[in-house]
Amino acid sequence: MTTDKIIFGAGCFWGVEAVFREIPGVTATTCGYAGGKTENPSYGDVCGGGTGHAEVVLVEYDSAVLAFRDLLKVFWECHDPTTLNRQGPDIGTQYRSAIFCHTPEQQTEAKISRDQLQQSGRWRNQIVTEILPASRFYPAEAYHQCYFEKHGHGH
């Protein structure tokens, strides 16, 4: 098995994680924080808005089974990438749309995917998704992991 990693931010990490956990070829998901300046942030710290972190999901996948472009398709479909610092009722920089890439190839493919989506006309507004090299990832507290599975809520 060839395991690769990618970090997606697309709003509240509970729903994002639930979406990616359903995809064949995804081997693990972890809710957490990335893209900020504070070391070892807590959920409260991130929600306070001063850390610079986004709520994200680290997705580990078997690249022999699942292509990165297929993960990108799911990412673009599971949220509105044109809303700055907001997804639905969740407002703040921690809910921004972001892709934190582990390889230069991922970053190139993500940018091409974004540009193709923008040109497709699906979104009237400009896509604001950040596409950056992976920063340090901090796992969220245990109660955030597999939240919907534990609490029986849908996404």
From TrEMBL:
Its EC number is 1.8.4.11. This is Peptide methionine sulfoxide reductase MsrA. Keywords: Oxidoreductase. The keyword Oxidoreductase applies. The keyword Cytoplasm does not apply. It comes from Nitrosomonas mobilis. Has an important function as a repair enzyme for proteins that have been inactivated by oxidation. Catalyzes the reversible oxidation-reduction of methionine sulfoxide in proteins to methionine. Residues 5-153 form the Peptide methionine sulphoxide reductase MsrA domain.
